[in-house]
Amino acid sequence: MSENIQHATDADFQTHVLDADVPVLVDFWAPWCGPCRMIAPALEKIADNYAGKAKVVKVDVDQNQQTALKYHVRSIPMLLLFKGGAVQDTSIGLVPESKLTQMLDKALA
After folding, report:
1. Nearest alpha-carbon partner for 43 in 29, 59, 27, 30
2. 66 carries an active-site annotation
3. HEC string of 62-74?
4. Known active-site residue 60
5. What is the number of alpha carbons within 13 Å of residue 7 lying toward its C-beta?
6. One of 8, 24, 33, 61 is an active-site residue; which one?
7. Max Cα separation, the chain?
8. 0.85 surpassed by pTM
9. Is there a contact between 94 and 40 (Cβ–Cβ < 8 Å)?
């Protein structure tokens, strides 16, 4: 796994995501989710390519149900792009890496 991917919990989501000074792509996932495992390599590549400009943070929905409920996560993988502590964009399901990079590029523009 990329050293540029962070893992957030209910307890530290505020620090990792909402208080971040760069855009944050949050992956709501679970270890048993096949599509979540399939999108993981793209997220690792994005985390490495955007290091210093944006962050990739993973939230295990089984272990962090409060955060998942707060953001109405009903289907995984669900990716939310946060900027300035607010949700800027959403992607649900297995999507190509290009869609995720477009979300980040828009937030960085």
Report:
1. 27
2. no
3. CCCHHHHHHCCCC
4. no
5. 9
6. 33
7. 35
8. yes
9. no
The C-alpha atoms of residue 25 and residue 76 are separated, in whole angstroms, by: 14
Which of 5, 25, 36, 76 is labelled catalytic? 36
Whether residue 17 contacts residue 24, with contact meaning beta carbons closer than 8 Å, is answered with yes
Residues sharing a CB contact under 8 Å with residue 51, sequence separation 6 or more, in sequence order: 4
Q: What is the distance, to the nearest Å, from the Cα of residue 2 to the centroid of all Cα atoms in its chain?
A: 14
CB 108 within 8 A of CB 23: yes
Task: For the chain, 109 residues long, give each residue's pLDDT as a single digit of tens.
Answer: 679 999 999 999 999 999 999 999 999 999 999 999 999 999 999 999 999 999 999 999 999 999 999 999 999 999 999 999 999 999 999 999 999 999 999 999 9
